[in-house]
Design a protein that fits this description.
The protein contains ten helices and eleven strands. Helix 2 packs parallel to helix 3, helix 4 crosses helix 5 and helix 4 crosses helix 9. The chain starts with a helix and ends in an 11-residue tail after the last strand.
């Protein structure tokens, strides 16, 4: 099969909202009147972002999902995407499953694949996504104000916990792993919530590298500090049941290699959550709850913005938690 046959068979679909889609030297599309273009790229590399034997259907899903999450964080409506993919060989069954997962999520969010590239090489997946957002309405990292409440969507920590199990850093039961693995392999981008937060959130981003590491980007861009309450951070019943010590005061400090320390790391710094973290004025508290409920996404207030710099995390007893809270960095 040639490169062009591969593209036609697995990655060419109708693109009615684009002026010109797959098949030419470049795609053409027109941004709607009154909107600006939001653009983001994310790369997934085999061995770094996913295991080489990852299920291709869910890998197709995740390849697009992580980009949709960026659109959600900006309050942008996703419209078009390009896909650049390096393949070690042509595996028809793998490509069929991968493209099925990719296009199932694309269809759910009305996103059209309008171009990209293919080449031979180590498995590497890169999507560039294009969205629309009304002029001056984009959610940004800069904008958090002293007194804002800090919110997160969904539950945190399950994806990192599933990864820790796969890396044999913790042993989960079959039932426990089945409960948390969808967070790692099948993240659900919070696009509807991002759109709903326009006009009430002062700042936002998606949690990809860990809550505290990503929240730090908001604090730095906004030149403010934060206080976060560990006990308020929403976690799944599976994670909570593994050790209450992870989320409540421990009778003695958790050892570096303890399960409690690992689970706390999953919640605060583990990454791969692809939930939204955002800030909003306290007078918009009821609006946040109402709009989130309307789009069917759970949200939880976990702290507030303060004057100063950096983030202070307190446990249920008010004790400051220190150490090991940086987010993921590819080059550290």
């Amino acid at each position: 099969m040639s490169e062009f046959d591969l593209i036609r068979r697995h990655f060419t679909r109708p693109t009615p909202s684009a002026v010109l889609g797959v098949g030419d030297d470049a795609a053409l599309f027109q941004v709607s009147a009154g909107n600006v273009l939001a653009v983001s790229s994310d790369m997934l590399v085999s061995g770094t972002h996913f295991f080489p034997d990852a299920d291709p259907y869910w890998l197709g899903h995740k390849t697009l999902a992580v980009n949709l999450s960026d659109m959600a964080a900006m309050g942008a409506n996703p419209r078009w995407a390009t896909l650049a993919i390096a393949l070690p060989s042509v595996d028809e069954a793998w490509l069929s499953a991968f493209s099925a997962g990719f296009f199932a999520l694309a269809k759910a969010h009305h996103v059209e694949l309008i171009g990209g590239d293919t080449t031979r090489g180590a498995l590497n997946l890169c999507v560039t996504i294009f969205g629309e957002v009304p002029q001056n309405k984009a959610l940004r990292r800069a904008g958090a104000q002293v007194g804002d409440e800090i919110w997160v969507s969904g539950c945190l920590g399950d994806a990192a916990l599933a990864l820790a199990h796969l890396q044999q850093r913790i042993a989960l039961t079959e039932a426990e792993f089945a409960a948390v693995s969808p967070a790692l392999h099948q993240p659900q981008p919070r696009v509807a919530l991002g759109l709903a937060l326009r006009g009430i959130a002062n700042s936002a981003l998606d949690i990809s590298d860990g809550l505290l590491g990503d929240l730090a980007h908001i604090l730095e861009a906004s030149q403010v500090g934060a206080t976060v309450e560990l006990a308020l951070i929403p976690v799944s019943e599976t994670l909570r049941s593994l050790t209450p010590c992870a989320l409540t005061p421990c009778p003695s400090p958790a050892g570096e290699g303890s399960h409690a320390a690992l689970l706390q790391h999953c919640v605060l710094s583990g990454g791969d959550d692809y939930e939204l973290c955002f800030t909003a004025p306290i007078h918009h508290h009821a609006d946040v709850v109402h709009r989130a409920r309307k789009v069917g996404v759970p949200v939880t207030r976990i702290g507030h913005i303060v004057a100063g710099q950096g983030c202070v995390v307190r446990d249920a007893a008010g004790k400051i938690i220190t150490g090991g809270n940086n987010g993921y960095d590819h080059f550290k």
